[in-house]
Amino acid sequence: MTRDGRIGLKFCGGCNPEIDRKVLAEAIQMRLPQPFRLTTEEGDEPWETALLLCGCPTACADRPEIRGAARRWILISGKRVDDEDVSQEKMVERVMTKMEALLRQDR
Amino acid sequence: MGLKTAEAYEASLRKMRFNLYLLGEKVENPVDHPIIRPSLNSVKMTYALAHDPAHQDLMTAVSHLTGQRINRFCHLHQSTDDLVKKVKMLRLLGQQTGSCFQRCVGMDAINAVDSVTFEMDRALGTEYHARFLRFLRKVQEEDWTIDGAMTDPKGDRSLPPSRQADPDLYVRVVGKNAQGIVVRGAKAHQTGALNSHWVLVMPTMAMRKEDADYALSFAAPADAPGILYVYGRQSCDTRKLEGTEIDLGNARFGGHEALMIFEDLFVPWENVFMCGEYEYSGLLVERFAGYHRQSYGGCKTGVGDVLIGAAALAAEFNGVAQASHIKDKLIEMIHLNETLYACGIACSAEGHRTASGTYLIHLLLANVCKQNVTRFPYEIARLAEDIAGGLMVTLASEKDLRHPEVGRLLEKYLKGAAAVSVEDRCRILRLVENLTLGTAAVGYRTESMHGAGSPQAQRIMIARQGNLEHKKQLAAAIAGIKR
Fold this sequence. Notes:
The structure holds two protein chains of two kinds.
Chain A: E1 6-11, H1 21-31, E2 37-39, E3 47-54, H2 64-67, E4 70-77, E5 80-81, E6 84-85, H3 91-105
Parallel strand pairs in A: 1-2, 1-3, 3-4
Antiparallel strand pairs in A: 5-6
Helix pairs in contact in A: 1-3
Chain B: H1 6-14, E1 20-22, E2 25-27, H2 37-48, H3 56-59, E3 60-62, E4 69-71, H4 80-97, H5 104-124, H6 128-142, E5 146-149, E6 172-176, E7 180-187, E8 198-201, E9 216-221, E10 227-231, E11 258-268, E12 272-275, H7 281-318, H8 324-349, E13 352-353, E14 359-360, H9 363-373, H10 376-388, H11 391-394, H12 398-401, H13 406-413, H14 422-437, H15 441-450, H16 455-465, H17 468-479
Parallel strand pairs in B: 1-10, 5-8
Antiparallel strand pairs in B: 1-2, 3-4, 6-7, 7-11, 8-9, 9-12, 10-11, 13-14
Helix pairs in contact in B: 1-2, 4-7, 4-8, 5-6, 5-7, 7-8, 7-9, 7-10, 7-14, 8-9, 8-10, 9-16, 10-14, 14-15
């Protein structure tokens, strides 16, 4: 169960992004149903679900120590979601589809 | 088997029956042909070093398919570490052979075909990826050398394949039945084709619907009935027929290219990996070219190391090693060479996983790497010629050097630094000649220009991948412009 609706959010460092990561995070936040919300604040326990938002396909933040911060991840790496190319216009839709599927598992 | 020995590799080639023409004659035994043999020795080195504990970390990998240790040339990259090690392996082999060792093209082909067939199957419901993996298992088990075949003759470049006056100027399917397909056409510039066990054919460019017959990828034994080869000439190649050694510059190693012609070649379906899926031909070209542009950041650097070393020795043998301008030229050569290497490493370290699990290089950086390769080896070669001096191209032959009468005079008048023999001075000058305008210049110069795509091909990719919009946003923000 995703406790108290928190969905983790981790950004890469943002050196040379192909996408506007903050705009994308805000757009996803807007689409999340109540009570879910994105948060960058880590607690003592790993997040159930989290979004790893990297600006380019290299996804340099996709490292074991980062992956340990959540039980399951959706990886955005430039114009790709979980290793699949996605056009910028469809990015939010694709992430939401994956997010809803994960959240459904918790019900 | 897993890891073939160098001797077993040579023995396996002796069993093959290539349909090959060279200098107007059919060649029955390419393995022992003096013009071809040095190129075989270079590929053989990829097998020999895999058994050397001092090089095993680079030369081998553990197959993700079988868990067996295999030659890295048969491996699908499973991490950015694999991509980095590939570049280091290619540099090592360039250093050990001073030539093109030909095997990278097959490695780049298997990696590209893997990820593209996976994505093609996922989108179109085809079944190519499983077929390809069955083929790859065999490649790994038998430690085959694969010729990755991409470049078609292309005829009139202003016309697409289906509108050429001769439809065979691009490789195409001319027949299909329940057992397989029939293929006609040709692949140009096929590096190492006669030292390969199998060919892995890919389309030459992005295709449109009307060119679907040309969207084709398949594997075939390199000596299959229906494949004919015409061996490509290299500058100074017939020196190998003179029975001398010094004049060759690099007597043991070399590279080769050939025109590969498919005369209604039959390919069973199990070896067909794309047949009409024109939407994916461009992606396959892009990925293969990307991997191959990465390759040049390794192999050309290794050959560059040899050329820089040769120039430094030539300077010593000429007695000018301490001249400040010579030192500065050597520094410039090293700077250029290491810049190429840095690009090869960078595009590898910045690679990423594809949907099949195979890792792909950073495409922008790989194209930047190759764009530099179209330039820097030429400057390195120019500086090497500068340091070597004019004797490199006016030097008497080895037969004159060994002649009882004129040899004595050459010993007197070709003397350089006192501690260096005339023969050694000749050897190093011939090596510089070999690399800058002899047989190895095919690999070090013109292949640097056109191999893995001509300069404009990289510029197109750089334009596509360069993310100029982001740079404009950065500038606008700094300048206080609201957009």
